[in-house]
Amino acid sequence: MRLANLLREVVDEKAFDSALRHLGAASVRLPMFRELADPSLIPNEIAAEVKLHDKDEPCPENLFRVHWFNDEAGTGVQTTPGFVLLGREFTGVDAPIAVVLGDRFPLIGSHKALPAYACLVSRLVTGRFDPDRDRAIWPSTGNYCRGGVAISRILGCRSVAVLPEGMSAERFEWLQRWINQPEDIVRTPGSESNVKEIYDACDELAVDSTNVILNQFSEFANYLVHFRCTGAALEQVFRFLQNGDPQLTLAAFVAGTGSGGTLAAGDYLKDTQGSRIVAVEPTSCPTMLYNGYGSHNIQGIGDKHIPLIQNVMNTDAVAGVSDDSCDRLNVLFNTDVGRSHLVDRKGIDPFTVGELQHLGLSGIANVLAAIKTARYFDLTEKDLIVTVATDGSALYNSEREKTILSSFSGDFDAVSAAETFAADLVGVDGDHYLETLHRDRRRIFNLGYYTWVEQQGVELDMFDQRADQRFWKDIQEVLPVWDDMIDDFNRKTGN
Fold first, then answer.
1. What is the pLDDT of residues 316-355, one digit of tens each?
2. Is the C-alpha dihedral spanning 91, 105, 171, 152 positive or negative?
3. Which residues does 98 contact at the CB level (< 8 Å), separation at least 6?
4. Cβ contacts of residue 419 below 8 Å, gap of 6+?
5. What H or E segment, with its residue span, contains residue 417?
6. Can you give the pLDDT at residue 169?
7. What b/e readout covers 118-154, taking b as 16+ CB neighbours within 10 angstroms?
8. Sheet holding 211-213, edge to edge
């Protein structure tokens, strides 16, 4: 079956021609996905032009910074993505944990800029988005819609962010600086746990055919770009570390479910390195673990449904983590008292402690799940676990203030720091962990039926195809086709 968002040819010549005129007049050259997977392929003249611009400037050149290989200053490209390596003195487990840093992405300080680019550009080059007519609707709990707004602005497309009203204040402050009109921010009821309300708002917007819904939970471009670009980036981190220790193996990739996109990197790493894939969810909203419900505050991790683009049948384990622990560790990692405890009392390298600022709430959750994974599988110092930090702590200053008031009565002191380190980090237990057998994977897979077939109208045949790994192997062949179409598009615009 040919899926609408996996088309390999132009389907609307009028929309395609409009995109050509629009981007041609704006002198926009679109990066190919292979260039974002390997920035060394970016032509020298383009790379030189990129360096002339600030990384957060809304200019076409910064599209060529939408990759994992930016240096910390945001002025150049590294051969290995930025990461922080966490050892036993920090985690309490033998297996090293490499956290690859998403806040080095331009424009929004989150790796969600990458799927936003993929989802919109794949529509432009296949004639499924007319910049002169359509509005891009970006449903999200925060980072994906920010990425969509940034990419849309660069491409001269009007966009609308749809997100829960209870997300961090920093998300809304950013959006207000970047949107064109106040009504282009749609606030839905609830917070991180209220994805259904986002869908409902999109259903209302979709009544107008010029509103194009780019739902990250069902856009396979999200899966594909993470499979190729994020997967390759994480493998490069592993190869870098393996150069220092040839006996090192890539034991597991750990990531929050979220939209299901980032987990696609696990498919890549399982193919190339045989690594396990571990999906992470909050214990207070344990959909995969217990068919459960509830709410949580691990912003960006998702819950209460199974994304259409999540390759459930290839998942090896599910780890549940506490959102309260993530909140408290956000305080420990980003206060003077907390950092002093880590350095002075626990003997952790000051550089490593300084790098913890690059871990947002979902990144902290991924670290906790990685610790659980190391304990469950009895991993050794030769078994690397790789994970990602979607964004950094700068997006959660307001959440940190709330936690200090609610969990520490307004005073996070040395005793609080010691207790948080002992209970929430090295004291993480092995509870709420499931190594998935086939029947477990099938149960989790079936949960998606209620969202996608009954509520969103996905055809049952298409839904069921996703249980077969041949489906995923087939769609992975689409990205090189899109690269050829982008190349052709650039030639026709003359950019």
1. 999 999 999 999 999 999 999 999 999 999 999 999 999 9
2. negative
3. 83, 84, 85, 86, 237, 238, 241, 384, 385, 386, 387
4. none
5. helix 414-420
6. 85
7. bbbbbbbbbbbbbbeebbbbbbbbbbbbbbbbbbbbb
8. 185-188, 158-164, 135-139, 211-213
3-class state of residue 254 by DSSP: strand
Block residue for tokens 């950013």: 174
Cβ atoms of 96 and 129 within 8 Å: the answer is no
Q: How far is Cα 443 from Cα 445, in angstroms, rounded to an integer?
A: 5
Reading the block at residue 14, the tokens are 């009028």
Bridge pairing between strands 317-321 and 433-435: antiparallel
Beta bridge partners of 159: 136
Which token pair is 445?
């897979």
Question: How would you write 190-250 as a 3-class SS string?
Answer: CCCCCHHHHHHHHHHHCCCCCEEECCCCCCHHHHHHHHHHHHHHHHHHHHHHHHHCCCCEE
Cα–Cα distance for residue pair 357/128, rounded to 1 Å: 39
Tokens of residue 230, six digits? 């994020």
pLDDT score of 193: 64
Cα-Cα-Cα-Cα dihedral of 369, 373, 374, 378, to 10°?
Answer: 160
Other CB atoms within 10 A of residue 343 CB: 16
DSSP 440-485: HHHHHHHHHHIIIIIIT---HHHHHHTTSHHHHHHHTTHHHHHHHH
Alpha helices in 26-112 (DSSP H): 33-37, 44-50, 88-91
pLDDT tens-digit profile of 204-216? Answer: 999 999 999 999 9
- For the CA atoms of 34, 122, 5, 316, the dihedral, rounded to the nearest 10 degrees, stands at 30
| Domains of the chain, CATH where assigned | 83-104+225-435 (3.40.50.1100)
First to last CA, the chain: 34
Whole-structure pTM value = 0.95
Backbone angles phi, psi at 77, to 5 degrees: -120, 135
Longest CA pairwise span in the chain (Å):
66
Describe the strand order of the beta sheet including 97-101 as a list of residue ranges. 83-86, 97-101, 383-389, 249-256, 276-282, 317-321, 433-435
Report how far residue 130's alpha carbon sits from residue 133's, in angstroms, rounded to the nearest whole number. 5
